[in-house]
Amino acid sequence: MARSILVDLEATEESMARSLCRPVKSSKQYLRQVISEYEALDRELPCIRKFSAPPSAQPLCLCMETSEDFTHLEVLEALEAEMPGAMESGRVSSIRYENMNVICGTAGRRDRWLITVTDFQTRSRLLRSGLCLRGLAHPLVRHDDLLLGDYRLHLRRSLVRRRMLQALGAEPSEED
Please, which domain of life does this record's source organism belong to (predicted)? Predict the structure, then answer.
């Protein structure tokens, strides 16, 4: 005598969805939604800087983003033109170049020049004036603002990735 067991697949799926703390939808629908969200994020932001920890505050660090290939000397000369004796007087403590394409492992990102100053008055003055390199004005922004934006994108992508892995039944790794 053959017995058949009737199982309410929808009810089972709903209880599984509740136990995973996700919206009650069929698992295929949910998986499609999560994957499309991840793909949309990937198209929108193909190169996101990764962080192992939240960035530390650097309130005296300014940044100039550019696609141009400037040298340290050109940036220094632009600083000196805006603020004569900036390095010698100690108002500017460092000029550093960040190749964002190397950091993000991609191409097409604008590079960053980081200028660290020693006081808030100098920072305010440079934020207002920006720098003029090769006859073009280049605004300076707070590096903390850019890093915070990068970090938010990293968190957003990590969350979507974690949701996708959970939907697939995989365990997120520590970097997620």
Answer: Eukaryota
